[in-house]
Design brief:
This protein folds into two domains: 56 residues, no CATH class; 67 residues. The chain is 61% helix and 0% strand. The chain has three helices and no strands. The chain is elongated, with a radius of gyration of 31 Å.
Length: 138
């Protein structure tokens, strides 16, 4: 038995091994009529199987992490992630990615707090300078 007799998208021989070539048509299952639809369906089934497998491994439930509004929320989120990883409910790569995201949020939050405080101090200084000018005029 020979390899698939069809040409691929680049105009070169398909190259599928004999094990997937139909002896009657000489075509692999991807190049037989309806092959594209079968490939799409196989991909869909594979994605569903992967999703089922990942769901079976655990992970975090939707809404399990708190919405990040304060550093205390970030602390709670990191605690949940740490426990889920330690219990084996959350794969280490996901735990690492989530931890990095929470830490970046915390950095941005802290930068915002510092910026707000600087603006408050500038406003207070401007007010004090204005008060001093008024006292001098009198």
């Amino acid at each position: 038995m020979a390899r698939c007799s069809a040409l691929n998208g680049e105009g070169k021989p398909c190259g599928s091994p004999e094990s997937v070539v139909d002896s009657e048509s000489g075509l692999c299952w991807a190049h037989q009529p309806g092959g594209r639809a079968r490939l799409v369906e196989a991909g869909r089934k594979g994605a569903e199987a992967t999703a089922r497998k990942l769901r079976g491994r655990g992970g975090l439930e939707p809404g399990e992490l708190p919405e990040l509004r304060t550093p205390h929320d970030a602390q709670k989120a990191l605690d949940i992630v740490a426990h889920a990883a330690a219990e084996g409910r959350l794969p280490q790569r996901q735990a690492d990615a989530t931890t990095r995201a929470v830490r970046e949020w915390l950095r941005a939050y802290e930068a915002g707090v510092v910026t707000d405080r600087v603006e408050e101090l500038r406003a207070e200084m401007a007010k004090l300078k204005g008060d001093r000018k008024l006292r001098r005029v009198k």
